[in-house]
């Protein structure tokens, strides 16, 4: 029989209401009991936090735990808070060896809600993991999405996740799994012992270079520009990005729009960033781009942009 592991890390799916607000209290065993599954599942409490409080070191530790768990399980399901689920999904994909199904799920409603969505999401994730398709995915609201490119697209709706430009890989309805597509292997490196600081700098009308300068001054090893449209930034930010690249600090560009790829098209904006050597991160979100750059810096410090570009070409990020 297929052996699955359930790694619970907290999040809304495991919260109950308290006088101070929702707090994590449900264990992995509690979550598993809600699914009434007949699958062979070992529940493990890997963490117990709300995902907005997670650190890069904790994400790196989770990636190592997932890799270790894959050695003894036929599939792994991670329950996680939805606030940063897409970032953890990216890190797990970047550090996965590709042999074992790993899927991440969560909930929009708490454990003690009268009509929780967690049990259905978790049951679907367990069924998908047992299905045996290798790779890292996100299972949510009956759909399975590729970890690379997935985004949280709604703060409240039960259908909170999507993969713009890609769509779902599969759907899960009870015991029935229907596949639509297969995601390519996504591993870039082994799970790191730690991840370097990479900051995200947002673009908005009139943005000056204070934020990107502060990021570098605070010790960021890399910077991601959450750019206008197809990859543009204000002139002060472009100028500072060029300076950082000249100093050997990699700069990546991702769109703030929510979907669609970036490209170096416009004079004084994206074209100037491209000429300066910035990494254009295709249609990845700024948040997933940050994890890509951090893993590339950790694993390939001599050429993180080259390593990231090779990975993007291999997995079809465009």
UniProtKB/TrEMBL annotation:
One Pfam family assigned to this protein is Asparaginase_C
Molecular function GO labels: asparaginase activity
PROSITE patterns, per the entry: ASN_GLN_ASE_1, ASN_GLN_ASE_2, ASN_GLN_ASE_3
Active site annotation, chain numbering = 12 (o-isoaspartyl threonine intermediate), 12, 82
Name the top EC class. Answer: hydrolase
Cited PANTHER family: 60 KDA LYSOPHOSPHOLIPASE (PTHR11707:SF28), L-ASPARAGINASE (PTHR11707)
Could you identify this protein by its name? asparaginase
What organism is recorded for this protein? Actinomycetospora corticicola
